[in-house]
Amino acid sequence: MGNGICEDFDERSKPEESEKPENSYEDEVEVSDSISEEEMEMLNSQLDQLNSALDDLEMKNEYIQARLLDLLRCSREYRQEMQEQS
Q: What is the pTM of this model?
């Protein structure tokens, strides 16, 4: 037995058939057909540049993560040494 509020919300959150987007694969094909070969090459070049930039960021992120893990390890070792000396 539900509380009514969630059930009403669930029903309201379902889109009606008339609310569903009318975009289809055919619409997308028409749009892509209107793009010239030169524009497509430019987009591919931009995507390649973005991919390279993301690869660089990923490498830097991995380097920073490794350095932070080293720092954490050193900090733990130092803290243990200090506790042993006390």
A: 0.52
